[in-house]
Recover the amino acids of this structure.
């Protein structure tokens, strides 16, 4: 039997747990929500395979056991990369959501995020926690480098933002959500999001306080699970503050775009910090009607490549392998 490495070299990764997405043209982005989603514009993508679910704890554990890989969250930061950092903070860890006991200003994310020593993919809630009972939940505390390492090992790659959004829409071009235009059709929750007043009141009417098993909610029309909610997912695109304008004619529609530039992806509000950012998509279980309404295919967010958190995971794609 060929090894995974051999499959990767010839571009023949295992697609048995993936969904084939036929190529097509769609309207990417939105003019109706956050500024970074605009303008809506036409994009064409070729066909590709995409993982049926986010990578799970079970799948990531196989990778770690096979390779001995150590994630960013398990690695002590290098002081040279973080000038001015307090020495006692230069320890391995990751961002963990900790709900405050009362309502707080929503512009200050430090009120609910804590850099937690010992938090990583195998200890998702801190040093004393584990993934026991969470094998079918999406792996979290994944930095961009970690997602790329897994993808390379298994002979796949990360989706572009256009790939991801096209797949998430499930053929419903222009729909508000991945399942249509109503957030909770008939009162039914279709994705793992936050119910109540974020960040302190979660009624959990969808059945989950944090992450959920990757098959807990219905798939979209393509048969893909968890494209919306549960965890944010990395893409390969550098972040830009807005999309390109729509092409004036059909002959100029971008095909298989790969967005942005590394040097243009820095946070303009913090010019002293030169950590590039990638686009993450899909929202998470922390997205709520009163905060971060990014549980939509068009939504996007900037994530520093060195930063992992308890609501960030990923899935992979394979290109140039049509069914049959």
């Amino acid at each position: 039997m060929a090894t995974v490495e051999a499959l990767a070299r010839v571009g023949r990764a295992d697609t048995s747990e993936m969904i084939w997405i036929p190529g097509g043209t769609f309207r990417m982005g939105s003019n109706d929500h956050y500024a970074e989603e605009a303008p809506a514009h036409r994009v064409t993508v070729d066909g590709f395979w995409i993982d049926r679910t986010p990578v799970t704890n079970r799948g990531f554990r196989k990778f770690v056991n096979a390779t001995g890989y150590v994630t960013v969250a398990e690695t002590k930061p290098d002081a040279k990369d973080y000038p001015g950092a307090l020495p006692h903070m230069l320890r391995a860890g990751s961002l963990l959501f900790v709900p405050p006991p009362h309502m707080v200003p929503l512009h200050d994310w430090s009120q609910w995020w804590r850099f937690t020593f010992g938090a990583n993919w195998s200890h998702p809630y801190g040093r004393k926690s584990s993934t026991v009972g969470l094998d079918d939940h999406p792996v979290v505390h994944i930095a961009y480098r970690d997602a790329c390492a897994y993808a390379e090992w298994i002979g796949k790659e990360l989706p572009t933002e256009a790939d991801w959004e096209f797949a998430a829409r499930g053929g419903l071009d222009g729909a508000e959500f991945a399942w249509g235009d109503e957030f909770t059709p008939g009162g039914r929750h279709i994705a793992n999001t936050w119910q109540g007043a974020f960040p302190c009141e979660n009624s959990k009417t969808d059945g989950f306080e944090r992450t959920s098993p990757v098959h807990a909610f219905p798939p979209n029309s393509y048969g893909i699970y968890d494209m919306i909610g549960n965890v944010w997912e990395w893409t390969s695109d550098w972040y830009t503050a807005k999309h390109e304008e729509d092409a004036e004619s059909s002959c100029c529609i971008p095909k298989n775009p790969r967005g942005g530039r590394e040097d243009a992806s820095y946070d303009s509000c913090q010019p002293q910090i030169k950590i590039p950012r990638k686009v993450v998509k899909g929202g998470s279980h922390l997205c709520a009607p009163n905060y971060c309404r990014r549980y939509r295919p068009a939504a996007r967010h900037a994530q520093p490549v060195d930063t992992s958190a308890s609501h960030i995971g990923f899935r992979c794609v394979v290109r140039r392998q049509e069914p049959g």
About this structure: Helices lie at 4-9, 57-67, 144-154, 161-169. Residues 57-67 form the longest helix (11 residues). Confidence is low (pLDDT under 50) at residues 6-10. The chain has one domain: 15-319.
